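User: For a benchmark we're assembling, each entry needs the component sequences followed by a predicted structure for the full assembly. Here are entry 17's components. Please fill in the structure.
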Amino acid sequence: MTVQSLYGVAALVAGGIAYLLPFLPPWLVTIIADVVFGAILLAASMINTIVLIWYERKLLGRFMDRRGAMHVGYAGLLQNFADGLKLFRKNTYKPREADSLGFYGGPTAYMVSSLVIFGILPISTGWDNGSLPLSLLLALVIFSFAPLFIFLSAWSSNNKYSLMGGMRSAAQMIAYEVPILIAVVAVVVLSGSFDLTTIVSEQRNYWFALPLFLALIVFVAGMLAEMERIPFDLPEAEAELVEGWNTEYGGMLFAFFMLADYLRALIGSILIVLLFLGGWTLPSYVPAALTSFPLAGIFWFMVKTYLVFGVFVWVRASLPRVRTDQLLRVGWMRMVPLALVSVLIAAAVVAAHCLPVLGCVPGLGS
Amino acid sequence: MWINMGPQHPMTHGLWNLRVKIEGEIVKEIDPEMGFLHRGIEKISEDRHYNEVITLMDRTCYVAGIAWEHLYIQAAEQALHVTPPARALWIRVLCEEMQRIASHVMWYAAFVQDLGLMSPFLYGMRDRDLLLDHFQSFTGGRLTYEYMRVGGVRNDLPPGTTDRMRKTLDWLMDRFVEYDRLCMGSEIFRKRCDDLGVLKANDCIAYGVTGPMLRSAGVRRDLRKDRPYAIYDQVDFDMAIADSADVTGRYLVRMEEMRQSVRILRQVVDWLDKHPGPVMAPNLPRWLGAPYAPVGREGYLLKRNYPKGVGLSAIEEPHGEANAYVVNEGGEHPYRVKFRSPVYVNLSAAHKYLVGYHVADIPPIMGSVDVCVGEVDR
Amino acid sequence: MGTDGGTGRMTSEEISGRLKEKLPEAVLAFEELPGTAGRVRFRAESALEVFRVVRSDLGYDHLSMVGGIDWVEEREVIYLVWSDLRRNYLLLSTRIAARDAHIESATPVWPSANWHEREAWEMVDIRFDHHPDLRHLLMPDGYAFHPLLRSFKLHEPEELEVKVRRV
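Assistant: Structure for entry 17:
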C-alpha cells in the first residue's frame, strides 16, 4: 500500500479501510481515504470559520462596549449557525441583466479556491506528508486567484457600485501581491525552503518574527488588504459603495462571499502563524510540559491563529478606512521598499549563519 | 457615468438622492434630488392650533426636535404677544443645549461610521442615550418631546434633575476626550479628512452656509452670541472657531461646541437650582392655554379680538442658523409659517464642496455637513 | 459707513434714511419689526436695485431665507437678510398681484437664493425671472399644483377639544 504518500490522518483512514474491507484494491482505498480526509478538512475549516465569526463578533462587541451575540446557545455560540440557516432558507435572485455564469460562478469559484488552500496548509505534524516541496508557493498562488473571481462576479452582476468595487478590489489585491511575495522571499531565504513544514521546523530556536519583524509588518498589512478588512476594506466600503462587489448578492450566494471572506481571514492568520510565529511548535527552550500533552501541536496552533485574528479584529475596531489612492500609494511606495529591506536582513542573517542573541539554527547555511 | 447615491444609500442618512457624475473615481458633477421626505409641514401648520404645530416641529428634524420647538415657539410667542416667565426661558435653553450635544454626538457617531470606523457609532449612541434619559424624565419623550408651549413649557423639571444632570455632564466631558483621541489621534483619520470638502469663507457667505460649516471657515457668526435670544446673554461661553474650512475643521468645531454646551448647561443647572418659579405665563387666553397649564381667570380674551401680529425668530440650531416666520391673522391657527432650515441651504452649496473629490470622499464630506433630511424637506 | 462707535451698527432710522436716499421710488415703507432692524416694503418692479443696495451699500451679505405668502389677491415675497457687520436682520417684503405673479430673481446678488426661490415657485407659484434653474425641488417633476396656496385645501382637520383644567 502506498500509504506513505498520504497525509497522516488519511493514512490512518486508509489503514482502517484496508483492515475492514481487505478485498478492496489499494488504489480504491487511497481514493476513499482521500475523500474522507477531504470531508474531515472541509468540516474542520467550516466549523473553524463559523467559530471565527463568533469570535470576531464577541471581541468586537467588547471593543465597542457591548456584548455581541448573546441569545442563541451559550454566549451566542450558535448564533452564526442560526444566521447560516436563515441565509440558507432565503430566496436567491439574480438581476435580470446579470450574466448567469459569472453571477453564480464567481462566488462559487471564490469559495472553492479559498477552501482548496486548506488542503495544502499543514496544521500540525501528522497532518502533512512532508513531501510538498512548494506548498508555500502553491498556497499563495491559489490565494491570489481571488481578485479574478471577485471582478468576475462584480462585472456580471451589472451594477455600477459592484463594478467599482470589483475594480478597486482587483487594483488593491494586485498592488499588495507584490509586497507580500517579497516578504515571503525573506522567509524563504531564512529557512531555505518553500515547504511550509520545513519553514516551521526551522523556527525551533527562534521565531522568524524576531529577525524579520519588518517582513512581518509588511505581510500583516498586505494580508489585511488581501482579506479586505478594515482599514483596507474599500472594495466593499458600505458607506459609498453599498457593500461594493456583493451589492447584488443575497441569500446563500452572499453567504458564500461572507464565508469565503472569513476563510481567507483564517488562511491569512494561519499563514502568519506558519511563516513568522513558529507554527505548531514552541521554541525549544520552553518547558517540555507545555508541548508534550496530546494534540499539543494543534492546540498551540489554534491559540496562535486566534490571537493573530484577534489583532485583526482589534485593528477593525480602532481604525477608519483609507482611500483608494492612499492605499495604492502606501502599497507601492512604502510596502515594497520595506519588504526589500527585510529580504536584505534575511540575507544578512543567513550570511552570518547565526542570530547574535538567540543563537544558531542548525542547518543554516549548510 | 452617472450614479445615484440614494434614495436608499448608506451615505444619505435619510431619504434623498445625490446624483453624481464620475470619471474614474473623481466627482465631476452633482445634482441633489430632494423631496422624498416632504410632508408639507408648513401647509399642515396652517390648519393646526398654535400648540399643535409643536408636534410637527419634533418631526421636522428628528435628531434636534426640541431645538425646532424652541425656534417655532419663539416666533409664535412674538406673533401672539405672549411673554414667557424667566424660568421657562432657562429650561428651554437647557433643552436646546442638551439637544445640541445629543445631535452632535449622533453626528459624530454617524460621521465616523461613514469613514469605516464602527466603534464610535456605539460609543456615540451609548452617550446620547444618557441625554435622552434626561429628556424622558421631564418631557416623557426620547425623540419627539412636545414639551414647549406658547407661554412657557409644559411642566417643571422633576426634583433631582439638576443633580443627575451634573453627573451626566461630568461623564460626557470625559467621553469627549476619548472621542478626540480616537479620531484626531489617528493618522488615517487625519489623512482622510484634512483638506477635504473645502468651502472657503466667501463661498460660505455667498451660498448662505451657516453653522459649524461656516465657523470652520473662520467666520465668527453664532446667533447665540450675535443676536442673543432667550437667556444666552446671561451665560458665559465661547464661540467654537476653526480656520481650515475642511472636514477636520468641522469636526473640531462640533467637538468644541459640545464642550461649550456642557459649560452652558452647568450654568443653566445652577441657575435653575436657585430660582424656582412658574414655567407658564399667567393670564394666557384660554384658547391658547396648554391642557394642564394654570390659566388665569381675568386674562380671557375673545379670540376675534386678539391682536394680529408677525413673529420672526432665529436660533442657532445644531446644524446652523434656523429661522421661523409666523403670521398671526387672528384665530387659533397661524396664517402662514415659514421655516429656514440650515441643512437645506448647506446642501444647496453641495456642488462647491463635492466636485473634484473622490467618490470615497463623498460620505465623509456629506457626513461633515450633518444632513438631516427631515428638516431639509420639512 | 457705520456710525455706531465704529462697529458698523446703524439704527433703524439710519438704514431707512439711507434706503430712502438711494432708492426714493422703490422703497414704499419702512416699519418697525421686533427682533430685526426693520421691515422694508418695496416695489416689486425695482427688486434687483433694492437687493443690490441692501447687499452692497448696507452690507447685508447673507440671505437667510426667501419665502412666499399667499394673500389670495396678492402674493407677498419676503427676504430675510443678515449682516455680519451690523449683527442684525432686515426683512424685505414686497407684494405682487396674484395673476401672473413674477419677480426678478435674487440669485445674481445672493447665490444662496437659488433653492429658496425654487421652493417659493413650486409652493406659492411665484415665478422668478432669470432664475438659473427653476425646476421642482421638493415636489415631483411635473407636479401641477402649488400646495401652499390658500386655494389648495387639505381635508378638514378633526376638531380637537383642548381640555383645560379649571382653576
